[in-house]
Amino acid sequence: MKLDHIKTLEAFREIIQLGSVTAAARSLGLSQPAVSRLLAQFEGELGFKLFHRSKGRLLPTSQALLLYEEVDLALQGIERVSALAGDIRKTNVGQLRIVAPPSFAEGPLVKLVATFLVKHPKIHINIDSRTRPTVMNLVATRTADCGFGKLPLDHPGIRLRPLISSPTVCVLPPSHRLATGKRAISAKDLADEPLIMVGHRSSDTRVRIGRAFQEAGVQPNVRVETHNVGAACALAAEGVGIAIVNELLSRRSLWTGVYIRRFAPAIEQEYVFMSSANVRETPLTEAFYDHCRTALSERTKSKPRGSLQS
Q1: pLDDT per residue over 94-124, tens digit each?
Q2: Which is nearest to 264 in space by CA: 189, 206, 166, 191?
Q3: Are 172 and 260 found together in one domain?
Q4: Are 137 and 257 in the same domain?
Q5: Per the structure, how many domains does the chain have?
Q6: Predicted structure pTM score
Q7: Domain that holds residue 106
Q8: Is residue 225 one of the residues assigned to a domain?
């Protein structure tokens, strides 16, 4: 890709992100007229308008928004080539680009990265939080070195390595009647209880949970649906209902005083480590996988007192 084409794409991305030619020019270290020319040339080549003005701001058209994610991914790939060249020049200093869904990035990944940096203090880490399909695409195209996901996953461009199996649990409000005397909570126990569910109804986990209720002859009373485990646990802590979630992602909510009990029948959720299937993993990526596997294995042996009964 020619340098002037890269500058044009960079100008387009900055205008989308910052909302004005002036701010984009400042960010890129260019003059405002130069950025305006780049934008005009880009629109001329494409044959359609990318922005319209409203109260002094440039608002992207629907066509511009369709282009934006692909442009952003392309530029990230170019930035990775530049960063890799820099890493090669610096020999002992490496860079690791990690991508994961939001709940994982804000949850277990925090501790994994923190402890890895203690062992590798000269490493630079970039963490990106994206949707599940984008996570796979970023890993497959080597825009990211590695990623995390939950089975089932299907992408020809990614290599999957086992990481950890996490049970499905019930997160109960403080002082809830089911919090004491129960080693596990069944679908029958949850009859008439207000529930907080996570994810799309068609997702693998939701389907398996629904099947458990169906087999128990119970109609689940779903009060709230969300796509964020942290939000589900916080709602449970507020007494809104009982959240049925992935135990691995529920741990950071323990400070709220909620109780965590296994859901029965057991529904395991398998997490995997992703890397590109098209190239060999770097030694740094291999080291990070080994660290994650070991750390998560040790985590299962040391559950917080009083939080999870099986």
Answers
A1: 789 999 998 899 889 999 999 999 988 888 8
A2: 189
A3: yes
A4: no
A5: 3
A6: 0.65
A7: 93-163+270-301
A8: yes
